[in-house]
Design goal:
The complex is a heterodimer of chains A (276) and B (429). Chain A has 276 residues and is of the alpha/beta class. Helix content of chain A is 47%, strand content 16%. Chain A is globular, with a radius of gyration of 19 Å. The N and C termini of chain A lie far apart (48 Å). Chain B has 429 residues and is an alpha/beta fold. Helix content of chain B is 42%, strand content 21%. Chain B contains 12 helices and 16 strands. In chain B, the strands form 4 sheets. In chain B, strands 1, 3, 4, 5, 6, 7, 10 and 11 form an 8-stranded mixed β-sheet that branches. A 4-stranded mixed β-sheet of chain B has the order 2-14-15-16, with no helix packed on it. In chain B, β15 and β16 form a beta hairpin. In chain B, α1 crosses α3 and α9 packs parallel to α11. Chain B is elongated, with a radius of gyration of 23 Å.
Chain lengths: 276, 429
C-alpha cells in the first residue's frame, strides 16, 4: 500500500471514530480548502471513500471491494479527463478534479443544504462524489460487503426544482440486476454523466448556449451507459431533464439577439415531451 | 503499490521484409525506436498495476501483450514494439511523453498505434482497462467527398483523442485455455509443415528478440529471428484458437483492425490492388469482432468509431480516385450503423452526413435530400461546437444552389440559409 493511501485510511478511521463519538455525523461537513483556487475553472470534487465503522475497516472483503471500486473509479476519472481535455481544446473551458481529503458527507446527501448547494455552484463545482463502505446483513444471513456511492450536482440542486431533476443520487455498489455484462455492474459511468449535467446547467445559466448543449448531449450518452447497469427511475428523471433543458437552451439561444452561433440555424422546436 | 509490471518484460520487435537485420533491439520508454521501413508501428506501453500481481497474473499480462505481437503477423510492413520502463523513472512511460517522442521521429506516411492501460488482480480474475491512440504522421485522418464539382466538397475527420475501453475481467483460468495456442505460436518449424522438427522461442519475460518476415507460403510465414539469424516457419493460424482471449479482451480485435486500416490508408505507398481486397476483408472482420464482443458494454463511442473506421477502410481500399456510387453506398451503410451505435456521437453523424451528401449530389439519395437536410440541422442542434458540421451544411447548401442536390425548399430560402450558415462559420473561426 502506498503511503498516501495508508495515510488516507488512517485519517478516515480517525474521522469515523471522531464522528461516531460526536453523534452528529453530518453536522460539520469538513470544508474543502482547494475549492476557492482557480475560480474560473469548473470542478469535479472527489471526497474520501470511508468505512462505516472500525469493524468494516478491518474486514478483508470490504478492503477488496474498495480496491475494485478504486480501479473502476480511476477508469471513470480517465473518461472525465478526456472530456476535460476536449472541452478545453475546443471551447477553452477548463475543468479540473479537486480531491478533498477527509471530507465525508453523510450518505443520504443531507449535508447538501440549499445554502451549501448555492455556495458549491458559485464555486463552479459541477458534481461532488463520496462513498461509504459497510457490512450489510441480509435477514438471517451473514454480513456482506457493500458500498454506497453518493453524487450531488450542485447547479441542478441550486437552479432546478427537485421534482424536475433529482440532484442527489446514492447508488449501491456493485450494482445488482440483469445486465449484458457482469463487469458492467462494477462500472461507474454516472460520474462523467453527472459532471456534464452540472456543467450544462451552469453553462445554460451563463448563456453559454453552445457549451451547454454540447454538455447535455454528452451527458445523454453517459446516462445511456449508466443505464446498462440497470434501470433507475431517478436516472430516467435526469435524462428527461437533460433532453428538455437542452431543447430550452436552444430556444433561448435563438431568441437571444447577442447570440450569433450555430443554434440560430436550427428551427424552433416545442420542448414539452421533447425526444430529439 | 503502484508499479509497472512491464518494466520486467521483454522487448519484441516484429519487422517487415525490407527491414535491416539490426532492427531487433531493446526499446525503453525513454527512447522508443522508430524503424524507417514499416508503415505501421504498434507501441505497447507497460500496463500500470494497481496492487500486487501474482505469478499467474504476470503470466497472463505478458501473454495479453504478446498476443498483439503475434496477431499482427498476418499484416506486412508492421513493427510491434513492447516498451519497457526504467526503475526509478515512473514518469518515463507516461503515454503523452511516449506519443510525443514517437511523433517527433515518425516519417510522413508512417502510422503509430499506442496501447496502454491499467490492470488489477483480485481473486481468480485480472481486470484490465485499456486505452488506445493512433496517428498517421503528416496526414490528418480526414476524408473528402465531392459534391458535384471540384470546388465543393464535404469532409469528415477522425479526431486524435484516445479511445477508452471499458474495464474487462479476465479469469486467470484462461491461461490454461490459451497456453496451447501460445505454445504453437512460439514454435519455429524447419519447414512449412506441422510435422517438421521445430525449436521454441524463449518464453521468459526477460527474453529479448525481434522478427523479420522473409516470405509467406499458404498459411505459413518464414521468419528470421533478430538477433541471431535463426529462421523457421510459423503457422499464421497459430493463435486462431486463442480467440477465447480476444473474446475477453476485445480491444485486441480493435488493434488488429487498426493495423489493417492504416495499411490500406498507406499514404505514398498503398498495397497492390490484389492485396487490398484481402486486407480490407481482414480489417473489417477484426472491427466486426470487436463490435460484437464489446456489445452491451459502456463504450458505445468506441464501437461507433470501429464502424466509422470500417467505412473509411472501404473507401480507402477502393482507391483515391472518384468512388463508385456502390462503394459510397457501402460506406454510408457503415456510417449509419455507427450512428445507431452512438446516436449522440458527432463524429458518426458527420461521416454519415458527408458521405450521404455526396450520394445526394449524384442523385443517389435513398432517403431524399430533404431528410438529409433535417438530419444536418438535428446534428447541429445536438452539437453546435462542431465546425465541420456547419461547414458541411454550408457546402450542402452550395450544392443545392448549383442544382446538384434537389431540395423542396425554395431557391431564395436556400440562399438565405446559406448566407446565415456562412456568417455562423465566420463567427466560429
Amino acid at each position: 500500500m502506498t503511503r498516501p493511501r495508508l495515510r488516507r485510511l488512517q485519517l478516515t478511521a480517525c474521522l469515523v471514530l471522531t464522528l461516531a463519538a460526536a453523534g452528529a455525523a453530518h453536522a460539520d461537513l469538513r470544508n474543502c480548502d482547494n475549492l476557492s483556487d482557480n475560480p474560473g475553472d469548473y470542478k469535479v470534487v472527489l471526497d474520501d471513500f470511508s468505512f462505516a465503522s472500525p469493524a468494516a475497516q478491518a474486514n478483508t472483503q470490504l478492503a477488496a471491494l474498495r480496491e475494485t471500486l478504486q480501479f473502476n473509479f480511476t477508469g471513470q476519472l480517465d473518461v472525465l479527463r478526456a472530456s476535460a481535455r476536449q472541452l478545453d481544446r475546443n471551447l477553452q473551458v477548463p475543468m479540473r478534479l479537486v480531491f478533498c481529503a477527509g471530507r465525508q458527507p453523510s450518505l443520504d446527501g443531507s449535508d447538501f443544504t440549499a445554502a451549501r448547494a448555492e455556495q458549491l455552484s458559485d464555486e463552479r463545482v459541477v458534481v461532488e462524489m463520496w462513498g461509504k463502505l459497510d457490512l450489510s446483513a441480509a435477514a438471517g444471513g451473514a454480513p456482506s460487503p457493500s458500498a454506497r456511492i453518493g453524487y450531488v450536482i450542485p447547479p441542478v440542486q441550486h437552479y432546478v426544482d427537485e421534482a424536475d431533476a433529482p440532484p442527489v443520487h446514492v447508488m449501491a455498489y456493485p450494482k445488482t440486476g440483469a445486465v449484458g455484462s457482469i463487469a458492467e455492474l462494477e462500472n461507474l459511468p454516472e460520474l462523467p454523466a453527472f459532471a456534464l449535467i452540472g456543467l450544462g446547467t451552469k453553462a445554460a445559466k451563463a448563456n453559454r448556449y453552445d457549451l451547454a448543449v454540447w454538455a447535455f448531449t454528452r451527458a445523454e450518452a453517459g446516462i445511456a451507459d449508466a443505464k446498462l447497469g440497470g434501470a433507475n427511475p431517478r436516472l430516467e428523471a435526469l435524462l428527461a431533464y437533460v433532453k428538455r433543458t437542452a431543447c430550452e437552451t436552444r430556444t433561448t439561444a435563438r431568441k437571444d439577439p447577442n447570440y450569433k452561433g450555430p443554434l440560430t440555424l436550427v428551427p424552433a422546436q416545442a420542448c414539452a415531451g421533447v425526444e430529439l | 503499490m503502484k508499479r509497472s509490471f512491464g518494466s520486467t518484460l521483454a522487448c519484441l520487435i516484429l519487422c517487415a521484409v525490407a527491414l535491416p537485420a539490426a532492427a531487433g533491439v531493446q526499446s525503453p520508454c525513454a527512447d522508443p525506436i522508430i524503424l524507417p521501413g514499416p508503415k505501421v508501428q504498434v507501441f505497447i506501453m507497460p500496463y500500470q498495476a494497481q496492487g500486487q500481481l501474482s505469478a499467474r497474473g504476470h503470466e497472463l499480462a505478458t501473454i495479453l501483450q504478446r498476443h498483439v505481437l503475434f496477431a499482427a503477423l498476418k499484416y506486412p510492413s508492421i513493427a510491434v514494439e513492447e516498451l519497457t520502463g526504467e526503475p526509478g523513472e515512473p514518469k518515463g512511460c507516461e503515454p503523452e511523453r511516449i506519443m510525443s517522442r514517437v511523433g517527433a521521429k515518425l516519417q510522413d506516411g508512417q502510422a503509430a498505434i499506442f496501447l496502454w492501460g491499467r490492470l488489477f488482480e483480485q481473486g481468480d480474475a485480472i481486470r484490465l482497462q485499456s486505452t488506445l491512440a493512433f496517428t498517421m504522421h503528416g496526414s490528418p485522418d480526414k476524408l473528402q467527398w465531392s459534391l458535384g464539382d471540384a470546388a465543393n466538397h464535404a469532409s469528415a475527420s477522425v479526431p486524435g483523442d484516445p479511445v477508452l475501453f471499458a474495464a474487462r475481467q479476465i479469469p486467470l483460468d484462461l491461461l490454461q485455455a490459451i497456453q496451447p495456442a501460445y505454445r504453437e505460436a512460439r514454435r519455429f518449424h524447419k519447414a512449412p509443415d506441422a510435422s517438421s522438427s521445430f525449436f521454441d522461442l524463449p518464453d521468459s519475460p526477460e527474453a529479448r528478440f525481434g522478427y523479420e518476415v522473409l516470405e509467406t507460403r499458404d498459411d505459413w510465414m518464414h521468419i528470421r529471428l533478430i538477433p541471431g539469424g535463426d529462421d523457421g516457419w510459423v503457422p499464421a493460424h497459430a493463435l486462431a484458437s486463442a480467440d477465447n482471449l480476444k473474446g475477453s479482451f476485445p480491444e485486441l480485435y480493435f488493434v488488429d483492425g487498426l493495423i489493417g486500416y492504416h495499411q490500406l490508408w498507406g499514404v505514398g505507398s498503398r498495397p497492390a490492388a490484389a492485396n487490398r481486397g484481402r486486407m480490407l476483408e481482414l480489417t473489417r472482420a477484426s472491427f466486426d469482432r470487436y463490435i460484437q464482443q464489446a456489445a452491451g458494454r459502456a463504450e458505445s463511442e468506441a464501437r461507433a468509431l470501429a464502424m466509422i473506421l470500417k467505412g473509411n477502410a472501404t473507401l480507402r481500399a477502393a482507391g483515391p480516385g472518384e468512388w463508385s456510387t456502390q462503394t459510397l453506398q457501402q460506406a454510408q451503410a457503415l456510417y449509419r450503423d455507427g450512428q445507431e451505435l452512438a446516436p449522440t456521437s458527432t463524429i458518426a453523424s458527420n461521416f454519415f452526413l458527408a458521405c450521404s451528401s455526396a450520394l445526394c449530389a449524384r442523385g443517389a439519395c435513398a432517403d431524399g435530400s430533404d431528410q438529409l437536410h433535417e438530419q444536418y440541422l438535428r446534428a447541429i442542434a445536438r452539437d453546435p461546437t462542431s465546425t465541420e458540421l456547419v461547414t458541411n451544411l454550408d457546402r450542402f447548401y452550395g450544392a443545392a444552389q448549383s442544382g446538384r442536390i434537389r431540395l423542396s425548399v425554395p431557391a431564395d430560402q436556400i440562399a438565405e440559409q446559406r448566407a446565415r450558415t456562412s456568417r455562423v462559420q465566420r463567427e466560429m473561426h
